[in-house]
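Hi,

I'm pasting everything inline rather than attaching a file, because the server keeps stripping attachments. The sequence lines come first, and each chain or strand is labelled.
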Amino acid sequence: MKDLSLHIMDITQNSIVAGADKINISLCVKGEPQMLILEILDNGKGMDAEFVKKVTDPFKTSRTTRNVGLGIPLLVQSANMAGGELKIKSEPGKGTELEARFNVNHIDRIPLGDIPETIKMLIMANPNISWTIHFSSPNDDFILDTDELKHHLDGVSIANNNVLEWIQNTLDDGIKLVYGGVLDEVN
Amino acid sequence: MKSIEELKAIRDKTLKEMSIRENDDKIRIVVGMATCGIAAGAKPVMSAFIDELNKRNINNVNVSMTGCIGICRLEPVAEVFDANGEKTTYVKLDAEKARRIVAEHIVNQKLVTEFTVGAAER
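And the predicted assembly:
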């Protein structure tokens, strides 16, 4: 995967297929050396300990169309490449927490990519899921919560084009505010 | 920072427009968005569908995503479900092809035969 936004698009599909109706995506830059930490939390059906152990193996998958699942192995590869790692915690019936860490200044760290566009598409295609998006860095903090937006929207669909455009622009501003001067690719 | 006030203005404007075109989603475009699709470039394809529909002010088409359709070698794949329930599977897409599908299939209601799975598998 070329950038983090594609991994986010990919990994959240697991949450959606697991039946989650709440998905939190958090991106945080902190620590010394500076680490970029991607967290995806869901309240889907979860996995048992046995499955979690095997989930980074490309030949373990819950899909039925074929027997190879590459989403998580590719994210492991991206994290390892940048001096980071991937952790997964899951409990059947409760949900899954995935955390991928990347060394911000590692030469092989993949860039963020177009995260606002990815999230817009995710909301557009899954308007009934409660999405919480969180960006943070020593600079600033940013939160977007679709439940709160729905409250203001008063019956207008969150998948309405103009609303989605507003969400994308708001996320764009959030990325600039939080990561401007922190990540090379944001300025 | 975009304000909630802006969002409320969008809401009010949309509520006004809604009464004019009380149109439920009739056509669906479903883009395969599993690992295979994403790696093959499904995101710019979905982006092009959305952009082209917006540009043409088409509001009765719902764009969504699905998992692996099972023909990974033909990704990016999109399925178009017409109002009558008929399904067309388009394969090996890119942004340009997506725009043509909007122009020819959605607007002119004529299949883009050369991009269909049938043509690819011949």
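The first strand of chain B starts at residue 27 and ends at 32.

If the labels don't parse on your end, tell me and I'll reformat.
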